[in-house]
Amino acid sequence: MQTIPPLPGAAGNEPNREPGDGSAVDNLVQQIKGYIQSNGLTVGDTLPSERELGEKFAAARNTVREAVRILKAYGVVDVRPKVGAVIVNRHMDAVLDLFSFQLSISRETFLDIQGFRRLIEVGSADAIFLAVTDADIARFRKLNQAILDAPTKVEAAERDFGFHAALLELADNQTVLNVYTTMKPIIVKLMETGKESHGLQGTYDTHTRILDALEKRDRLGFQYWMSNHLDHGLGFIDRSVDAQNTEETAPDA
Prior knowledge:
two-stranded antiparallel ribbon; mainly alpha; 13 helices
């Protein structure tokens, strides 16, 4: 039977801690993360059983279970029947779930998110221009038409996000794309708010100007129209917030 290597911080090997240095669960989470790193565990590998973790860290069973639950919430492990805790790489999914709890859209939220997008999408212009081909531009025009043809504002917003994500893919920076993707729930919600009446046509028209600048290899034009596009929805957000406030203050029938 293979012996499990000692875990960092195991009984008799744990660094001295001052009282109040985090809860027992928090400490155990950090110890397990250290164990994963120091033993070179990767996706698909399994952690020791809850009993073994408890023995090696002198931790109560409930403490071990809570620590594993937190690691699962982080997207670090997945608990499978008859197998136990398996190392996974779902931290991006965990962050997406977190952003999905953003329930309301305010003017401040809009400005913050669009400011983030401006840093990413306008800031990636040079990398996009280095990589773009005529075939890419033709593909983007089809994506833009698909937004206009979408049967619902929800579907239009999903396609709109896909359009912008496809542009960022040209920058060939996976970290940038990952960060952008983590924001998808709230970005899509913003896009839905702007897909009313002529908001959808406005999205299509500004996308067209962005693509025209890209086709002409006009960096300044691309950056101008992208910034203009990111500001475009502010009027829709203001009207949406006003309507929401009116509903909240309206007297009960």
